[in-house]
Amino acid sequence: MTGYSVDELMIATLAACFDNDDQVCNGLSSVLPVCAIQLARLTHAPDLVWIAGSSGVDPLDPQLTASSFESPLWRDAVMYLEHYAEFWDYVAGDRFLRKFCVGAAQLDAYGNANNSVIGAFDHPRVRLPGTAGLGDMGALDKQLIYWVTDHSPRTLVERVDFRSGAGYLGGHGERARLGLRGGPALVVTNLAVLDFAPDSQRMRLRSVHPGISVDDVLSATGFAPVLPPRVATTTPPTAEQVRLIRERIDPHSYRKRGFRPPTVR
Amino acid sequence: MTGYSVDELMIATLAACFDNDDQVCNGLSSVLPVCAIQLARLTHAPDLVWIAGSSGVDPLDPQLTASSFESPLWRDAVMYLEHYAEFWDYVAGDRFLRKFCVGAAQLDAYGNANNSVIGAFDHPRVRLPGTAGLGDMGALDKQLIYWVTDHSPRTLVERVDFRSGAGYLGGHGERARLGLRGGPALVVTNLAVLDFAPDSQRMRLRSVHPGISVDDVLSATGFAPVLPPRVATTTPPTAEQVRLIRERIDPHSYRKRGFRPPTVR
Amino acid sequence: MRDKVVSAEQAVALIADGDVVGLQAGPTQCAPMTLVREIIRAGRRDLSLVCLSGGLPVDWLAAAGSLARCTFAAVTMEHFGLCQRFRRSVETGAIAVEELSETALYARLGAASRGLPFLPTRGLIGTDLLDVGNDALKVIPDPFGGPPVVACRALRPDIAVLHAHRADRAGNIGIDPGVRLPTMTTLPRASRRVIVSVERIVGSAELRRAPDRTILPGFAVDAVVEAPSGAHPTSLFPAYDHDAGFFTAWVEAAADDDACEAFLDRYVRGPATQQEYLGLVGVR
Amino acid sequence: MRDKVVSAEQAVALIADGDVVGLQAGPTQCAPMTLVREIIRAGRRDLSLVCLSGGLPVDWLAAAGSLARCTFAAVTMEHFGLCQRFRRSVETGAIAVEELSETALYARLGAASRGLPFLPTRGLIGTDLLDVGNDALKVIPDPFGGPPVVACRALRPDIAVLHAHRADRAGNIGIDPGVRLPTMTTLPRASRRVIVSVERIVGSAELRRAPDRTILPGFAVDAVVEAPSGAHPTSLFPAYDHDAGFFTAWVEAAADDDACEAFLDRYVRGPATQQEYLGLVGVR
Predict the structure, then answer these.
(1) Which residues of chain C have a CB within 8 Å of the CB of B96?
(2) pLDDT value, residue C43
(3) Burial letters for B147-165: b for 16+ Cβ neighbours within 10 Å, e otherwise?
(4) B interface mutation test: which of C113, C219, C222 has the most B CBs within 10 A?
């Protein structure tokens, strides 16, 4: 077995965000983060506490299905968390669950996210699923890690149609002035990895995936990200990581859903 | 078996307060209300829902001990209520648990209750146990049913040293003007039964127990209660009620604790 | 003992046109589907739905024209995609929307269940959801000098509708070991009345063997309906998973107006009883 | 896996003089008595105790001079009467008091556990507890136009101390079927650090057989101490009842200064280990 596909690269990149002392949960429609959490637990972060589906703590024998929110995922959990009083209490404090993987329909240059509407709120062109927990996570002291399977000018825009979740708002410290701590930390897409420039808090290209050029990324992005002097190449997954993903974590390839045929010219 | 003692009369009087559709809980140090709840369930109110020790719903086989707050009391409960989110939620709403039996160290002419201090709050002569749930119950839309085993000028006073629980405050509608509904409904003592005059909301003598005169009550009371034209005699418990209390509900006579030797001249 | 067990039809008679209805449902998780079908069969209109993150039942109610309004944190069927009938009804303005974050929705329900006028959240700050004219949300100062919070006004549904594993005739509701589903107890505590469908009516003695798995006391439940597989096609673990084939069939039908109506006629309005429905969908 | 199991002495080393200590205890119900004895043995001073309705452990801590302050809804040993040493310390001014109603205390802890600056309650209105200079309570208007409520400022103990049935080495805490004791989960969620003593350390596999009976996740627990009968003389149902004879002996000793000191020397400061203590009090 040689090679890897982009989903596997993204999983390995997300996995590297989790430290051994972290706790992390996954939400709805989050097969990629689930694979990343599992990969981290099986490699560099064996003590990483996973709250599967925001419900089951530290499952021993999770069964990945097409859903990242159904009961098989937290098989053999050591504890169930009640969603309102337990899960959200642990999130809302400042000690636990400091990192969140977030998928969003639209993401803008300052890391604000939209899962609500395209168009006007009251008469939208597209009614999206809704903010769910994103409207909370964005306002709390969390590191948001965005993942995007469809890096395109439609998903990465200069300004979101609607802010369902607070990123750096207009940038340049506006978030902190509103009294909010934390904020977006990383954006992992099917083309590149981006972070946020410290001063302007505008999205910055950090690395392009092997085989993707900086120009590929720029033409697939709906705004001009900050370009550092040198753009690295994303570290590809190791053969062992790929093996774990394919054989152990996701043998049925649920992770492939949500990826379109390559959109890069 | 003939006759009855005053604890049994009080139990029967309290039991008559509970209707078949009510829910009722008991707190700490509440053997008398527990006996009354059980008596009601065994006689006129078989469907009365009892939340034993504010913890166990509808126990089938409660075992009365010296404590009214330990686990044997809710043996064979159909549900346990968590104290904060479940018990207090059901209390704080306006649909359930509309009546509360309350014991207090001091009670005043307008039904305010003190379980906090005798003397000044910061340097009390006597530090009492504390308000517990009384400070909540008094502010909610509940009917408070006070029970007093030691009717004396020390326990029934013109004005409590400290308001741990709101009754009618200064009377004459002050409670309602503060936006509070409900309030004290009945006071069952070892000498008499009192309620509250509709206009002044001052305590009013309703009935004296058999063998007790109105003057006995007045000289044992630290204020002048409202006297209606006719003061009835409290209905004594029936032989069947006494038998149930003695043989079935409280065979070990825990209910006798807290009663002093007769204080009436 | 007041016997709370009634038919689905009798239970749904407790719901009036225009009511605020709290619905227990996840994207594919446990919803009271027998009762949802009955609501549609009974032709209820102008309902204001309150549902944390419901999927297919929200889509059905939208498709049947039962909804005037919906309060939610998400409406989605997860891997089966957006709820297309709901989505279109919102886009045409037929259904008004109150979108809340999860903590804000919990705060609104929690305030109602606690008899409070509001509860605060630190969520939503920095989002546009505070700027869409929602008068149930107010940014207020912290009286102790910290940063402001969002006061979320109590939301008290007229009726809560949910599904669980078992109940006794007095209406005490028990669940099998497992996660307590989101809003499963908050929603009924917040609501004026409560209807619960269950897999099985059992004797109270069965509940008394594990009182810590009783989630609602009978005094707070108005009606209980026995409905085996009553969450189908949503999941009720550990009893059964969601029916992926049925979800897919609905997604396909929902794409077309006629197919959608035919689907509702066949599966929702057609079967007169739960047994008939289960036979039709091939369960058991 | 980070192993959380330590000795009582090591656990209590996490508590500093002057700390705000949240104590799980009822009037005669489950308190972490092994840890309370260790706090006294270690000579901790100036503690601010937070305890919903504790009894004997509060009295012991008062008698030992460990307390500067106490936040409570009640301090009582129910049928064993008032806590006489605590009472006298308050009457002499040696211990300052913050008395709260139950909902106000829950609101203060609940706000801390939810990361909120305050939570409101409708309790306390009309009582003098709002007029004793407690700056953690403020009557505020309802921003939606209803009657005012009492905002209760978040109270975040430095450390929570509690006792339960079992834990695994990762610090996941499990209980036997029964009531979840008041504050048993609220208090640790509100606190910066958490110490739990348990009857038995078990393998994680035992907890995984009934995850709905795990009440605290290991990541939120800092230290676990194995202490069989570690709640004695308070009760831990269904394992054991409170020890009425021992309570009575304490009540008698507490009536006299010398007898009180002798009692503490014998039962609290004397035994070096839990086994020695249990031998002394005749348990097992």
Answers:
(1) 219-220
(2) 98
(3) bbbbbbeebbbeebbbbbb
(4) C219
Q: Which residues, in sequence order, are CB contacts of D241 under 8 Å at separation 6+?
A: B70, B71, B72, D235
The reported pLDDT for the residue numbered B263 is: 43
Given a contact cutoff of 8 angstroms between Cβ atoms, the answer to whether C130 and C100 are in contact is: no
Q: Are B93 and C218 an interchain contact pair (Cβ–Cβ within 8 Å)?
A: no
Contact C208 B76 (CB under 8 A): yes
Q: Is D181 on the interface with C (CB under 8 A)?
A: no
Interface touch B180/D101, C-beta < 8 Å: no
Do D270 and D280 meet the contact criterion of CB atoms below 8 Å apart? yes
**Residue in C101, C142, C185 to test binding to D, most D beta-carbons within 10 Å:** C142
Determine how β-strand D193-201 pairs with β-strand D223-226.
parallel
pLDDT in tens, B54-82: 999 999 989 999 999 999 999 999 999 99
Residue C1 is predicted with a pLDDT of: 78
Spatial distance between the Cα atoms of B212 and A184, rounded to a whole number of angstroms: 77
Q: Do C185 and B86 touch (CB under 8 A)?
A: yes
Distances from the Cα of D203 to the Cα of D172, D175, D209, D267, angstroms: 10, 14, 11, 32
Decide if A167 contacts A111 (C-beta within 8 A): yes
Tell me the residue ranges of DSSP E strands in chain B. 23-25, 49-52, 56-57, 79-80, 99-102, 106-108, 113-114, 117-119, 124-127, 143-148, 156-157, 183-189, 192-196, 203-208, 232-233
Residue B1 has pLDDT above 70, yes or no: no
pTM of the model: 0.97
Paired residues of C49 in beta bridges: C21, C70
Segment A67-95 mean pLDDT: 95
Give pLDDT, residue A262. Answer: 52
Q: Rounded to an integer, what distance in angstroms lies between the CA atom of residue B98 and that of residue B152? A: 28
Q: Touching check for C122 and chain D: CB below 8 Å? A: yes
**C-alpha–C-alpha distance, residues C188 and B196, integer Å:** 36
Q: Which residue of chain D is at minimal alpha-carbon distance from A24?
A: D219
Of A130, A110, A118, A113, give the one whose Cα is nearest residue A28.
Answer: A130
Predicted confidence (pLDDT) per residue in A219-245, tens digit: 999 999 999 999 999 999 999 999 999
**Please, what sign has the CA dihedral across residues A245, A249, A251, A252?**
negative
Cα D62 from Cα D69, distance rounded (Å) = 10
Task: At B238, list the tokens.
Answer: 């029936």
8 Å CB contact of B116 and D128? yes
pLDDT for the residue numbered A264: 41
Kindly report the number of other CB atoms within 10 A of residue A1's CB atom: 8
pLDDT in tens, C195-242: 999 999 999 999 999 999 999 999 999 999 999 999 999 999 999 999
D44 by Cβ neighbours in 10 Å (0-12 / 13-18 / 19+) ranks as: buried
pLDDT at position B261: 62
Characterize B166-188 residue by residue with b for buried, 16 or more Cβ atoms within 10 angstroms of its Cβ, and e for exposed.
bbbbebeebbeeeebebbbbbbb
pLDDT tier for residue A263 given thresholds of 50, 70 and 90: very low
Contact A80 D212 (CB under 8 A): yes
Q: Choose the closest CB to D180 out of B66, B82, B128.
A: B82
- Split at pLDDT 50, 70, 90, the class of A2 is low
What are the pLDDT digits (tens) for B101-124? 999 999 999 999 999 999 999 999
A57-71: average pLDDT: 95
